[in-house]
C-alpha cells in the first residue's frame, strides 16, 4: 500500500474541519469556498462598510519533539503570555502618564506661585 502524502493528509483534515464548521446548512450558505484552505463571507461592520472575512485552516506539522496536544498548549501559553505582557506594558504606561501629568501640574503650580510672588 502506498504511503499517503502530507498534502493529501492536510487536504483531508481541512475538508473534515470545514465540514464540521459548516455542518449547519444556514451557516454553510453564508460562506463561500475561496480555495482548499479558506472560506469567506461578506459582512457589514459597525460603520456600515462591507468587509470580507476569511476563515482558514492551517494544519500544523508533525513534530518529533512534542505531541499535537503539547504543540497546541505551547501556542496557547505563548498567546496568553503575550497578552499578559501587553497588559503589564499598558499598566506601566498608564502609571508613567499619570506620573508625568502630576509632575507637569506641579511644575505649572510652582511657576504660577512664583509668578504671583514676583507680582506681589
Task: Please describe the structure with a list of short key phrases separated by commas or semicolons.
120 residues, three-stranded antiparallel beta sheet, 3 helices, elongated
Structure explained in plain terms:
With 120 residues, the protein is α+β, with helices and mostly antiparallel strands. The chain has two domains: 1-59, no CATH class; 65-120. 62% of the residues lie in helices and 15% in strands. The protein has three helices and three strands. It has a three-stranded antiparallel sheet. The longest helix is centred in the C-terminal third of the chain and has 52 residues, at 68-119. The chain is elongated. The model has no long low-confidence stretch (mean pLDDT 92).
Shape: elongated
SSE-based structural type: alpha+beta
What average pLDDT do the residues reach?
92
Main β sheet profile: 3 strands, antiparallel
Portion of residues within helices: 55-70%
Count helical runs: 3
Write the element-wise H/E pattern from the N-terminal end onward: HHEEEH
* DSSP strand count: 3
> What is the domain tally?
2
The end-to-end span amounts to: 101 Å
Amino acid at each position: 500500500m502506498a504511503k499517503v502524502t502530507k498534502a493529501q493528509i492536510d487536504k483531508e483534515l481541512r475538508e473534515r474541519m470545514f465540514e464540521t464548521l459548516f455542518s449547519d446548512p444556514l451557516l454553510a450558505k453564508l460562506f463561500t469556498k475561496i480555495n482548499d484552505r479558506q472560506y469567506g463571507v461578506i459582512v457589514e461592520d459597525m460603520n456600515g462598510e462591507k468587509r470580507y472575512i476569511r476563515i482558514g485552516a492551517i494544519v500544523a506539522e508533525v513534530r518529533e519533539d512534542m505531541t499535537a496536544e503539547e504543540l497546541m498548549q505551547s501556542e496557547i501559553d505563548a498567546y496568553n503570555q503575550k497578552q499578559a505582557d501587553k497588559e503589564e506594558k499598558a499598566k506601566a504606561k498608564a502609571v508613567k502618564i499619570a506620573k508625568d501629568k502630576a509632575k507637569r501640574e506641579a511644575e505649572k503650580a510652582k511657576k504660577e506661585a512664583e509668578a504671583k510672588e514676583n507680582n506681589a
